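Need ApeA N-terminal domain-containing protein's 3D structure for a figure. Predict it.
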Amino acid sequence: MWSDLWQSFTRQTSDPAAQECLDLLIHWYVEANNNSGFAEGAIVFMQNAFELLYNWQIGPSPKGQKVDAAGKLRALLNRASIPTQVPTAYQRITADLKAKGIHVADLPELFTRVRNTIVHSDNNKRKTLRAISSMDRFHIRHLGLYCLELLILFELDYRGKIANRISLNKFVGGNEETVPWV
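Structure prediction for ApeA N-terminal domain-containing protein:
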């Protein structure tokens, strides 16, 4: 299984454009996983990775149609059969936001909305960002890492098991599951 993953990686990196994309994806993943720039910086790194991945694998939108960041992430997740709903363990975040008048429909919207409040920091967005606790931003970063890990593995045609970082079961081996696209 791991040799298949390595063969897929080396095959893809024989193309200079694919090598550049994978290099950046892995770089941004590592920086986000290291919590570079705290949760906020990690979220921005991951959004860069999602944008690159969308443009590399899905390509530009049909002329005249604009796909927002949440739509791009949603398309990537759907392509890999990764659920777009906010996992049960994290639904308290969306409930807290809803109580503050901030509605998010799914995981892609939650992630990109937080990223937008960080990057496009007008007064309204700063107010929204202040409504999200630092612990919730950390959890949103965690959700983004889960998505990025799976999307990179999907591009490398990995078909094995993963240790699901967002599983409620934290016991060794209890969080193992087969990737969603198998």
